[in-house]
Amino acid sequence: MNEATPIKGDQPDEIDFMELDNIIEMDFNNDPENLIMILQAIQGRYNYLPRPALRYIAEKIDVPLSQIYGVGTFYSTFSLEPRGRNIVSVCLGTACHVRGGERVRERIEESLNLTDGETTDDMRFTFESVRCIGCCSLGPVVKINEDIHGRIGAAEIAETLEKYE
Ligand code: FES
């Protein structure tokens, strides 16, 4: 078993290294083959991939940090930056665009005072635009976490966002 140590200055207060050990060792057997699943578990826990956690994983499973960053940046489901508790995605694919997706996007930006890719200061919301999430007949579509809000109008945005703490 590798003994990885937290690195000074890496905000160790924010990372529970014992919990990381449980994920890496108990759930995934320190196996480099399980790297993607380990990263999914870390992302599920922190809502993003904290850099200190990635360095810790690299030591524990003996995989180059560059390879871990490569995986973390390749898949769009992973984020290397802190994200809000709720991920708001507005679809701007063709079907949603022609049904008013742009107006919905503008209303979300106004309501949250964010632009694409930004997170509110209270970490409540991260906003992003996406291209087609596979529900074109429901356009315009907004996805919040795993919830699909189809045929949504700009007037419904504020009330919809209120439901997410
Ligand atoms: S274009 Fe929006 S879901 Fe397909």
UniProtKB/TrEMBL annotation:
Lineage of source species: Bacteria, Deltaproteobacteria, Candidatus Desulfacyla
InterPro entries hit by this protein: NADP_DH_HndA-like, NuoE-like, NuoE_dom, NuoE_N, Thioredoxin-like_sf
GO terms of molecular function: 2 iron, 2 sulfur cluster binding; metal ion binding; oxidoreductase activity
Protein name in the entry: NAD(P)H-dependent oxidoreductase subunit E
Native organism: Candidatus Desulfacyla euxinica
Family: Belongs to the complex I 24 kDa subunit family.
PANTHER family: BIFURCATING [FEFE] HYDROGENASE GAMMA SUBUNIT, NADH-QUINONE OXIDOREDUCTASE, E SUBUNIT
Gene3D superfamilies: Glutaredoxin (3.40.30.10), NADH-quinone oxidoreductase subunit E (1.10.10.1590)
Cofactor(s) the protein needs: [2Fe-2S] cluster
Domain of life from the UniProt record: Bacteria
Alphabetized UniProt keyword annotations: 2Fe-2S, Iron, Iron-sulfur, Metal-binding
Binding site for [2Fe-2S] cluster: 91, 96, 132, 136
Comment on bound cofactor: Binds 1 [2Fe-2S] cluster.
